[in-house]
Amino acid sequence: MSENDTIPKKSTSQINKAVFFTSALLIFLLVAFAAVFPDVADKNFKLLQQQIFTNASWFYILAVALILLSVTFLGLSRYGDIKLGPDHAQPDFSYHSWFAMLFSAGMGIGLMFFGVAEPVMHYLSPPVGTPETVAAAKEAMRLTFFHWGLHAWAIYAIVALILAFFSYRHGLPLTLRSALYPIIGDRIYGPVGHAVDIFAVIGTVFGVATSLGYGFAGECRFEPSFRGAHQ
Fold first, then answer.
1. Tally of domains within the chain
2. What is the widest separation between alpha-carbon atoms in the chain?
3. Which of 144, 149, 122, 147 has the alpha carbon at shortest distance from 133?
4. pTM, 2 dp
5. Mean pLDDT taken over the chain
C-alpha cells in the first residue's frame, strides 16, 4: 500500500455488534465454565498449555525473533521516517511524556509482580529440568529477560505500528483487521475481519485480566487493607 492510496471506507466510533456480542458471549462462557467446573477447567487448560509448549514453542520463539528483527529494520531504515498520521501532523505529547506513558502501559502492574515473581517461579518450577538448581536459575533468568526484554517490546511495537499506520494514516478501523487490508481489501469488513477482531478482543481481555489478577494478589502481600478482599 502506497502512502497516497485512497481507502474507500473510514473508521467510525460505532460499536461493531457482531464483534462485541460474539466476544462477550465467548468470554462469558469461558468464565462460567471455569467458575462452575474449576477442576475440569484447570485440567484442560493445563493440558492445552502443555500441548502448546511441547509442539509450538519453536514457532513462538521464531516468530518473536522475526518480529524483533522486523521492528529493528523499520526503525533504523528509511521507513522509520514515515509519520503514523497525515504528513502535516505534529506529536500531541513531548518525548518524555510519550516515554512515560509507553513504559507505564507496556510494563504497568505486571512489572511490580513479575519483576520478582517470574524468575522465582521459574527457578522453583522450571518448564524443563530440575528445580532449585544452578541450571534452573540460569533458565529462569533467560525466560524472564525473554518475556520482559527487547522481544516483548517488539511485540508491543509491531501491534502499535499496525494499528497506528492503517488507522491514523489511511483511515481504516482502529482494529487488527485493518492489517489484512493490503491482502484481502474490503473483505476485512466481513466475517474474516470479524473473526480477527473477536480473537484479538478475547486475547486482550484475558491477558489484561491475568495481569490485574496477579498484580492485585501481589499488592495484597504488601498492603494489609487489601488482604480481607483477597481472602
1. 1
2. 60
3. 122
4. 0.75
5. 84
For residue 174, give the DSSP letter. Answer: S
Is the residue at 35 inside a domain? no
Lowest mean pLDDT among 98-107, 125-134, 206-215: 206-215
C-alpha cell at 197: 477482531
CA atoms within 13 A on the CB side of 186: 5
What is the span of the domain harbouring residue 99? 56-230
**pLDDT tens digits, residue range 20-63?**
999 999 999 999 999 999 999 999 988 998 888 889 989 988 99
For residue 8, tell me if it sits in a domain.
Answer: no
Q: Which residue has the higher pLDDT, 21 or 90?
A: 21
> Does 205 reside within a domain?
yes
Beta strands of 77-217 (E only): which ranges? none
| Contact of 211 with 197, CB cutoff 8 Å | no
Q: How far apart are CA 5 and CA 157, in angstroms?
A: 24
Spatial distance between the Cα atoms of 12 and 46, rounded to a whole number of angstroms: 40
| DSSP-derived secondary structure for 55-67 | HHHHHHHHHHHHH
CA distances from 200 to 149, 208, 226 (A): 23, 12, 32
Question: Considering the domain boundaries, does residue 84 fall inside one?
Answer: yes
Look at residue 155 and give its three-state secondary structure: helix
Rounded to whole angstroms, the Cα distance separating 114 from 98 reads 24
Query: What is the mean predicted confidence (pLDDT) over 123-130?
Result: 86
